[in-house]
């Protein structure tokens, strides 16, 4: 009971952070003027996945595999060992020993597995051949896979997820929101030179401090 109350308290304390970075995210989007080829192909990828999801079928098996793969990777990254890996069309599981429970639980909701696979594949191919002619299709794939990740993340979060209980639902949802916001900025910075990752982080940090100062001033002026 005490842990749940503490989790709720910390969750509420982080709300100004999410507000600040949402404003910073919006300002970065407003910096983009015109549409270049890379941006166009990324938008086509976004549209392509949405059409696939709505008109054809939902690739649930692919999502579940990627979701559990990120769980497993984070177990290894944080010093644990994977004992069992399961993934089918509806659900999956990773049994492990050790590893940081919080990052392991939340990573799949933030890290776009197939976008990373695509980027690694593109970089690997670039070591052996000239991939410049394929760059527009890389951005198409980036838009497609990132949208796939975001759509399924929203979908599964509508259901009860035990992963969110590790750090508490409110804190977890806040971290997932901030993480995906930052991933979108990072990906868009690849195609839109107007978007600045450091500018986004700096503005978000400054606005967070300003919001906390405003709240404290209001509390102590009562």
**Would you report the number of β strands?**
2
The first-to-last residue Cα distance is: 31 Å
* N to C succession of SSEs: HHHHEEHHHHH
Indicate the low-confidence ranges by residue numbers.
none
What is the residue-averaged pLDDT? 92
Tell me the strand percentage band: 5-15%
Please tell me how large the radius of gyration is: 19 Å
| Strand arrangement in the largest pleated sheet | 1-2
Could you walk me through the main structural features you see in this protein, from its secondary elements to its overall organization?
- There is one protein chain.
- By secondary structure, the chain is mainly α.
- A hairpin with a 4-residue loop joins β1 (81-87) and β2.
- α1 (2-13) packs parallel to α8 (169-191) and α2 (15-30) crosses α9.
- The mean pLDDT is 92.
- The radius of gyration is 19 Å and the shape is globular.
- 70% of the residues lie in helices and 6% in strands.
- The protein has helices spanning 2-13, 15-30, 37-56, 60-77, 101-106, 113-126, 135-157, 169-191, 197-220; strands spanning 81-87, 92-97.
- The chain folds into two domains: 1-31 and 196-222, no CATH class; 36-193, no CATH class.
């Amino acid at each position: 009971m005490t842990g749940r109350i503490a989790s709720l308290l910390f969750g509420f304390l982080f709300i100004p952070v999410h507000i600040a970075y949402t404003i910073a995210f919006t300002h970065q989007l407003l910096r983009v003027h015109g549409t270049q080829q890379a941006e166009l192909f990324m938008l086509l990828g976004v549209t392509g996945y949405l059409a696939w999801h709505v008109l054809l079928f939902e690739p649930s098996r692919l999502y579940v595999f990627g979701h559990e793969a990120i769980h497993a990777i984070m177990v290894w990254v944080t010093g644990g060992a994977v004992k069992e890996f399961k993934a089918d069309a509806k659900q999956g599981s990773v049994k492990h020993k050790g590893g940081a429970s919080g990052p392991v639980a939340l990573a799949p909701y933030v890290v776009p597995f197939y976008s990373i696979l695509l980027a690694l594949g593109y970089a690997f191919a670039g070591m052996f051949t000239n991939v410049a002619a394929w760059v527009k299709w890389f951005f198409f794939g980036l838009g497609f896979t990132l949208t796939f990740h975001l759509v399924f993340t929203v979908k599964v979060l509508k259901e009860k997820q035990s992963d969110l209980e590790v750090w508490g639902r409110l804190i977890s949802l806040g971290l997932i929101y901030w993480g995906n916001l930052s991933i979108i900025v990072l990906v868009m910075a690849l195609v839109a030179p107007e978007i600045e990752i450091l500018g986004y982080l700096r503005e978000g940090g400054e606005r967070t401090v300003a919001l906390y100062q405003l709240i404290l001033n209001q509390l102590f002026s009562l």
